[in-house]
Amino acid sequence: MVARVAGVFDEKLTEAIANSKILVVGAGGIGCEILKNLVLTGFPYIEIIDLDTIDVSNLNRQFLFHKEHVGKSKAQVAKDSALSFNPNVTIIAHHDSVISNDYGVSYFKQFNIVMNALDNRVARNHVNRMCLAASIPLIETGTAGYAGQVELIKKGLTQCYECQPKAPQKSFPGCTIRNTPSEPIHCIVWAKHLFNQLFGEEDPDQDVSPDTADPEAAGEAGASALNTEGTAAGNVERKSTRAWASDTNYDPEKLFSKLFGDDIRYLLSMENLWKKRRPPTPLSWDNLPGKDSPTAQHSGLPDQRVWSVHECAQVFADSCKALQADLKNRPEGDHLVWDKDEKSAMDFVTACANIRAHIFNIPLNSRFEIKSMAGNIIPAIATANAIVAGLAVMRAQSLLKGEIETCTSVYLRPKVNHRGQLFVPEKTLTAPNPKCYVCAPKPEVALACNLKQLTLKDLNTAFKEGLNMQAPDATVEGKGLVVLSSEPGETDHNNEKTLEEIGLNDGCALLVDDFLQNYEVRVRLQQEDEEKSWRLVTDTDTPMPGPKEEATANGSNGSDEPKPGPSRPKDDSDSDMEIIEEDDNGEPAPKPPKRRKVDMSDEIVELC
Ligand SMILES: Nc1ncnc2c1ncn2[C@@H]1O[C@H](COP(=O)(O)OP(=O)(O)OP(=O)(O)O)[C@@H](O)[C@H]1O
Ligand SMILES: [Zn+2]
């Protein structure tokens, strides 16, 4: 291996490598490349953590995996394949989430360097905090298509992963999705919401029925249509879509007639909407376009040609039945999670999105194109992963040599800049943000909420979703009174009480900590009568996203976040690297850097 070949590295580095212990988090596109580089360089001790199993779609770029490995643990197979290049390495594989109690601060402390090769914000935030708590250098990596980035995070010396507020994620107004779609993506989002309404986790913000509260339709919304009462929120009061579908035994024809016939006629009755738009055309099951052009006459791969509306209806019927059967086989109360790689789930969304697109005179797309839009896929480029992994391991070598000041962030550009650079390094390390609510010496943040309405349960959610804590505990500053405990049962009896009812007032400060992350933050409560839920406000006055603005990540299917455990929802924020933009001279922008979030999490719908 390279480190053992005399003269390749100087003595100091050779020795440092020989004594090093490295943790790699994630064995996906970048993780496989990093592991290969470490093993071939001669790093003697590596641990690798990944919660996922190998999917067919990984094989084109995650070269440590082959066809026969599909369904097996990524971490374990990555280890076995890497050992075949160099059996003299100790590799410990963990098929697990890094967000598990098993990997506490003392676990992190045993490593010289941690290398992140993750694909979602929650896991990145968590490793960021663990490395800050353990004071271990973290090399953070990411790619998005042809672009990429490697950055060093070291407590007190550089910015941490959470030093800059993250941009809110892509969103579409709810009324566009429900009433007036004009682009294929609007129909795809609607179809994914329909999937959740029928088979997944029901979310009131993902209603697929006509929205009578649409300001554009104001005054006479649906007045001349079905004589149905509207709720205060403007939604048509009916039985839940799931309950209704279940009553019909998921009869595809009945579902079709309601979704693509009755609901469209209802929309047509909201006349204001169509004064300046082409009105939609309701469909009838017995008379669908494309019925007379047999499938056999079409050529090309089924995924890459656009299905006729008639074919879409057939696929709709078949996938509905398959998904209903899948749901039936699960325990009472369980639900399906939309996954672009699950055949029936993807077929269902393709068919529904295209049928709706036809109704609204929007171009139809192939299953392949819809998959890429529905999964928020920016194609992963194997070369970009390999370059970023190479840069990351070079940074690891510099760290081991003690040349930390040379470990500046490096950006891989999709094309060369006017200086002919493809790799643009920062000139210096980026200093921490003194107001960062994670890595500042005394982290602080304000929580804007209506204390008269926010319950203790909501507060717990705010700490988990807003502050990315796993198991928050909160006490009143100065009084030591326990408001929220992560020990089951200790404060649960107060869950439904409002913050006011448990004696918390405007300006009151809570000390909130997460034992696993070894992280404590002072949270000042800020009364806002208008606030419907909660919103974090940092000291820099940059509003932090509240629950409606930011994806409850990787979560992407409503919940993009990977959950601890050996499997995770697939449709999550597939990658969420950040790219620091250059200034006009092709230099990295002056500090603090402007950050553009490249986020592929699931869309969030804003209600209009
Ligand atoms: N909490 C976590 N703990 C451990 N590993 C994680 C965690 N969250 C994500 N990962 C892993 O990080 C890796 C990221 O790799 P990559 O970005 O190539 O994603 P992928 O899932 O392999 O590919 P794709 O999303 O394109 O299908 C994945 O293997 C994923 O399982
Ligand atoms: Zn920070």
UniProtKB/TrEMBL annotation:
Ubiquitin-activating enzyme SCCH domain location: 333-371
Active site as annotated: 175 (glycyl thioester intermediate)
UniProt cross-references to Gene3D superfamilies, sorted A to Z: Ubiquitin activating enzymes (Uba3). Chain: B, domain 2, Ubiquitin-activating enzyme E1, inactive adenylation domain, subdomain 1, Ubiquitin-like 2 activating enzyme e1b. Chain: B, domain 3
Subcellular localization: Nucleus
Residues noted as binding Zn(2+) in the record, renumbered to the chain: 160, 163, 436, 439
Gene Ontology biological process: protein sumoylation
Domain Ubiquitin/SUMO-activating enzyme ubiquitin-like: 447-531
Pfam families listed in its UniProt record: ThiF, UAE_UbL, UBA_E1_SCCH
Biased composition (Acidic residues): 573-586
Key word ATP-binding present: yes
InterPro entries: ThiF/MoeB/HesA, ThiF_NAD_FAD-bd, UAE_UbL_dom, Ub-E1_IAD_1, Ub_act_enz_dom_a_sf, Uba2, UBA_E1_SCCH, Ubiquitin-activating_enz
CDD domains: Uba2_SUMO (cd01489)
Gene Ontology terms, MF aspect: ATP binding; metal ion binding; SUMO activating enzyme activity; transferase activity
Sorted UniProt keywords: ATP-binding, Metal-binding, Nucleotide-binding, Nucleus, Transferase, Ubl conjugation pathway, Zinc
Family statement drawn from the similarity comment of this UniProt entry: Belongs to the ubiquitin-activating E1 family.
Entry-linked PANTHER family: SUMO-ACTIVATING ENZYME SUBUNIT 2 (PTHR10953:SF5), UBIQUITIN-ACTIVATING ENZYME E1 (PTHR10953)
Protein name per Swiss-Prot or TrEMBL: SUMO-activating enzyme subunit
Taxonomic source organism: Bicyclus anynana
Lineage of the species this protein comes from: Eukaryota, Metazoa, Ecdysozoa, Arthropoda, Hexapoda
